[in-house]
Write a structure and sequence with these properties.
27% of the residues lie in helices and 25% in strands. The chain is of the alpha+beta class. Strands 1, 2, 3, 4, 5, 6, 7, 8, 9 and 10 form a 10-stranded antiparallel beta sheet that branches. Helix 1 packs parallel to helix 2 (108-117). 41% of the residues are buried. It binds protoporphyrin IX containing FE. Protoporphyrin IX containing FE binds at residues 8-9, 23-26, 29, 61, 63, 80, 82, 96-98, 103, 108, 111, 164-165, 237, 266-267, 283, 286-287, 290-291, 294-295, 298. Residues 8-9, 23-26, 29, 61, 63, 80, 82, 96-98, 103, 108, 111, 164-165, 237, 266-267, 283, 286-287, 290-291, 294-295, 298 line the site of protoporphyrin IX containing FE (HEM). Residues 1-302 form the Catalase core domain. Belongs to the catalase family.
Length: 302
């Protein structure tokens, strides 16, 4: 997997012309300090320390998905929210979410093949011909590619709904495994921009908007876990679980101030703690290697 991860990062650098020192995806973003207040409602499902009733310090990074930091805010309709929980004894765990419920590739091999088809994103988007060819060759990618075509960016980082996409397991005191997916719900309510409004936005609008909001008080999100059933796939990020699944609110995140020192952090979605396990989703486990390589490269460049 590590070899394919290196090839994939090389491909991203070529397709997007990534400048040195930046993340190889979600290049432009801003980091903040936060606290997570767990309500204890998941304590029968997991022994994870941050899900027991109480407060945990956290870092949060909001980002625009493009590996090219110069893209306008509107050209990256998918926004990211990466949260690192700072646990006792210097341990940490991450939840990395985006404003899409699904990913477009089921396996790392397909992701890499698709990058090979889309030769260049440098003008901002692939040509119609390239998209049609992707949809014909990779029908399971249709859900996300169609979503992206229709997708409206949130009006602010603080009004997006952020999905973990992958499944994870909560592990109880009795070693029982409950498959879940994470969903961050904005306290300000979900609000999207029309494509025309989005195009009119200046570069860096989202970052400036967060600064204004935080100056007035904490920006808040609710963390829900979606409870998976035995028939829900835990290994396929191209499939959304039925919307009727039970949701459990496990706590609230309050984002309080800027944290420039957190910009260099590696938000690896596979870093777990006791009480949590990664699912068998191959894209999730591949991300561990891809993020490590990207982090090593960007840190060695700065
Ligand atoms: C084959 C699949 C994927 C690859 C190769 C990939 C690659 C990357 C890379 C290289 C980075 C920069 C890491 C760093 O330098 O710290 C990154 C960041 C990120 N990715 Fe992915 N990614 C993949 C799938 C996903 C999925 C499914 C999600 C949805 C949850 C996602 C969400 C994010 C977010 C939010 C960030 C920014 C994290 C931060 O703020 O540091 N990625 N990705």
């Amino acid at each position: 997997m590590k070899k394919l991860a290196k090839t994939t990062i090389d491909q991203i650098e070529k397709v997007f012309d990534v400048p040195t020192g930046y993340r190889r995806a979600h290049a432009r973003g801003k980091s903040y300090k936060a606290r997570f207040i767990a309500n204890g409602s998941a304590s029968h499902l997991t022994v994870a320390p941050h899900f027991q009733k109480g407060e945990t310090a956290a870092f949060v990074r909001f980002s625009h998905f493009s590996p090219d930091p110069t893209w306008a805010d509107a050209m990256s309709p998918v926004k990211g929210m990466a949260v690192q929980f700072l646990l006792p004894d210097g341990e940490m765990t991450n939840i990395v979410g985006v404003t899409s419920p699904v990913f477009f590739a089921k396996t790392p091999e397909i992701f890499s093949e698709m990058l090979g088809v889309v030769k260049s994103f440098k003008k901002g988007k692939p040509s119609l011909k390239e998209l049609v060819s992707l949809l014909a060759d990779y029908p399971e990618s249709g859900a996300m590619l169609n979503n992206i075509r229709k997708m409206q960016a949130p009006s602010s980082f603080s009004t997006g709904q952020y999905h973990s996409i992958h499944a994870f397991y909560l592990i109880s005191q009795q070693s029982q495994k409950q498959p879940i997916k994470y969903l961050w719900e904005p306290e300000n309510g979900v609000e999207t921009l029309s494509p025309l409004d989005a195009i009119a936005l200046p570069v860096g609008f989202f970052e400036a908007d967060m600064e204004d909001r935080i100056a007035k008080g904490p920006v808040k999100f609710q963390l829900d876990v979606i409870i998976g059933q035995s028939e829900d796939p835990t290994d396929d990020p191209t499939k959304e679980w039925p919307k009727t699944r039970e949701r459990l609110t496990v706590g609230y995140l309050e984002i309080t101030e800027k944290a420039p020192e957190a910009e260099g952090i590696l938000f690896d979605p596979t870093v777990m703690t006791a009480g949590l396990e990664c699912s068998e989703d191959r894209i999730l486990n591949f991300r561990h290697h891809a993020y490590e390589i990207s982090h090593q490269r960007r840190m060695s460049e700065t």
